[in-house]
Amino acid sequence: xxxxxxxxxxxxxxxxxxxxxxxxxxxxxxxxxxxxxxxxxxxxxxxxxxxxxxxxxxxxxxxxxxxxxxxxxxxxxxxxxxxxxxxxxxxxxxxxxxxxxxxxxxxxxxxxxxxxxxxxxxxxxxxxxxxxxxxxxxxxxxxxxxxxxxxxxxxxxxxxxxxxxxxxxxxxxxxxxxxxxxxxxxxxxxxxxxxxxxxxxxxxxxxxxxxxxxxxxxxxxxxxxxxxxxxxxxxxxxxxxxxxxxxxxxxxxxxxxxxxxxxxxxxxxxxxxxxxxxxxxxxxxxxxxxxxxxxxxxxxxxxxxxxxxxxxxxxxxxxxxxxxxxxxxxxxxx
Length: 334
What we know:
Strand order of the largest sheet: 2-5-8-1-9
Order of helices and strands: HHEHEHEEEHHEEEHEHHHHEHHEHH
CATH superfamily of the largest domain: P-loop containing nucleotide triphosphate hydrolases
Number of strands: 11
Shape: globular
CATH class of the largest domain: Alpha Beta
Largest sheet: 5 strands, parallel
Radius of gyration: 21 Å
CATH topology of the largest domain: Rossmann fold
Number of domains: 2
Helix content: 40-55%
């Protein structure tokens, strides 16, 4: 068997396993296909996901269902203004040994899991939010000078409510940048809402089966990184990223008008990796322009900072990014 045949076979297997997970989640979650797809994309890359939407749209249910389908350990942390870093990471506690001596023993916090649901993450203070930075970037927890390694795979799925702003603390840019995707959870349509009522008001209880485990997820994460990203496509991602930098040599007119800060290199990395997942799902082992355009918004919308003029005119990040996407050419003359 040639390498091409082997790659094609692996891509097909990946697509089948991925769709099987989506189908299993569909037993519980009605609609929101793009949200489920976005979360699974983050999983297959090893990135974290931020879900933004009004209460009661199924964000928490999605996470708990995902943990069951993927046979992973899951913990939920409800973020509140009085939550402290130790409530997340854990703390050293004094314990007495059988011979009467006392010593410090590390009591692990709820972050020691594989899927961590950070519910309403923007309700905690910046000090508490910062406790998540090391875990999200390095997969480790350092307490009292000692570093503890988290079990892999490790994902943070955070939710935030965009409606109630009183008693909330906007996530700092450094933390937002550590989320691979930011997904906007919208309302269900007429048919979906009817199906939700049918399921939830008649005593219906869906049971999901475990489809995948952590070892298989790590295997697919390695495969994703082997997908080919040609030089001209990598350059397209680079140009899309630097086009968000205000007053830069490649900035577009709308960039200079409405953006205060542009995307970091993590934005380009997120686009490249997510595009590779999309290519595999299409049965290809190489990234296309369409793959890049398809993942551009969720990978970038939380990495740009709007200026006062944009806020005054009620311009959101998606509007600016879509105009940048339209203005940046796929290919440039040599």
